[in-house]
Design a protein that fits this description.
By secondary structure, the protein is mostly helical. It has a single domain, classed as Na+/H+ antiporter like fold (Up-down Bundle). It contains 19 helices and no strands. The longest helix is centred in the C-terminal third of the chain and has 36 residues.
């Protein structure tokens, strides 16, 4: 299906692959959902297929590991180092600000359309929707001309904030499951510290060892180099899961260790290693966005007759998430402007380019799995969270993804002279 839809997109739609595949898969899903009389057997087949595996597990344990490693492999380590403070602040403080603004705003806004949901569950929605999706963001960045400094900020933030966002989500989930009175701040700090710092340390250890092996091989056996990098990703993901560490952060650090951009020993891994991971990145991306599009079938099954009621909440959630993203980015950058210069339109660019994707969908669907495992969450609340999440994801990938290039063009035009570092201005004009 990914191959067929990609062919249609390349031949006829000619849209960015992420957006084109999402639109085609969504259209296919809606055809099945609303054409039930004509496609009853096809809907049953699709539902069975989507229920045979846990989307959350497939994404976090397999696809995300491959995609994050491949994405980090192409990052410029030197440029990332130059933008380390904006990336660090946006990936932590920005996510926390957005989480609480989204949760609080949704709690007070939904009663307007006669939808009521617990505050702690609103915070869960804020936590799962606040991190930008590195897969969608990296796919967009590759197709958009922008200065290397801004590219590093956008891509670097998206690579690191999903790991932080997952930890924030798990912390709020623990509070919701056990009650605020049974949770001590030390427990949250311990969870955050072990997950985040442990993930970074694991990635550094495996990345350093993997790079050492690649230098020993010295490009003489391409197949061994590919197997070493595959072992790093699959083994690292398994170890992170076993030790309850942040797998996404480990993958990012490993990719940065092995990647050649911005490093002196650029030839540690042969050219075919990078070609292999580029191929994996493109193929996994195609399959992932087909899966996200097909999730509408499963979500429609979960929502049942409540579907139309919950769609009133989607426009509200889209507006709230955009405003929260603007504040989550704008407030930290306003403070950091006292220490360094940021080009014009930086806040607008970071706001509009903050796409959401498979990670948010996976976390929303994980609430059903958590309920099955003993987390007592009303099905009404989990249904509304899922509907809002899917609505925001679709809007960000299709609408924001299709229009962000105009904003980038305006950014490049305004900052091609004053307001940008000389190197960035040259890159933008090119």
């Amino acid at each position: 299906m990914a191959a067929f839809f990609t062919l249609i997109n390349v031949k006829y739609l000619k849209l960015p692959s992420t957006i084109g595949l999402m639109i085609l898969a969504l259209g296919f899903s809606l055809l099945i959902v609303f054409g039930e009389i004509l496609f009853r057997q096809l809907r049953e087949l699709s539902t069975d297929m989507m229920n045979q595996f846990k989307f959350t597990e497939v994404l976090f344990q397999v696809m995300l590991s491959f995609l994050l490693f491949a994405g980090a492999l192409e990052m410029n380590l030197k440029k990332l180092g130059e933008e380390k403070w904006p990336i660090l602040v946006l990936a932590t403080v920005g996510v926390l600000i957005s989480t609480f603004i989204v949760g609080t705003a949704v709690f007070y806004a939904l009663p307007i359309v006669d939808i009521h949901i617990n505050y702690i569950h609103c915070l869960l929605f804020g936590a799962l929707i606040s991190p930008t999706d590195p897969i969608a963001v990296l796919a967009m960045i590759k197709k958009t001309p922008v200065s290397k400094n801004l590219e590093s900020q956008i891509a670097g933030e998206s690579l690191f904030n999903d790991g932080v966002g997952v930890v924030v989500f798990l912390s709020i989930l623990a509070i919701a499951a056990n009650g605020v009175e049974n949770i001590e701040p030390v427990m949250i700090l311990k969870l955050f510290g072990v997950e985040v710092l442990g993930g970074l340390l694991l990635g550094a250890l495996i990345g350093a060892f993997g790079l050492y092996l690649l230098k020993i091989i010295d490009n003489t056996h391409t197949e061994i180099e590919v197997l070493v990098t595959l072992s790093m990703v699959l083994g690292g993901a398994s170890i992170a899961k076993y030790l309850h560490l942040s797998g996404p952060l480990a993958m990012v650090v490993m990719g940065l260790w092995v990647g050649r951009e911005g490093r002196q020993d650029k030839d540690a891994a042969g050219e075919y290693v990078y070609k292999f991971w580029h191929l994996m990145d493109e193929a996994m991306n195609a399959i992932l966005f087909i899966l996200i599009g097909l999730q509408i079938i499963r979500i429609a099954e979960e929502l049942g007759n409540q579907s139309m009621i919950f769609f009133f909440a989607i426009p509200i959630s889209i507006v709230i998430v955009l405003i929260s993203r603007f504040l989550g980015v704008g407030l930290p950058i306003t403070v950091m402007r006292t220490m360094r210069n940021f080009p014009k339109y930086t806040v607008r660019i970071l706001t509009w380019s903050g796409l959401r994707g498979g990670i948010s969908v996976a976390l929303a669907l994980s609430l059903y799995e958590a309920t099955e495992e003993g987390f007592l969450m009303p099905s009404y609340d989990s249904n509304i969270i899922t509907a809002m999440t899917y609505g925001v994801v679709l809007f960000s990938i299709v609408v924001q993804g299709l229009t962000v290039k105009k904003l980038f063009d305006k950014y490049n035009k305004v900052n091609s002279g004053k307001g940008m570092p000389k190197s960035a201005a040259v890159e933008a004009s090119e």
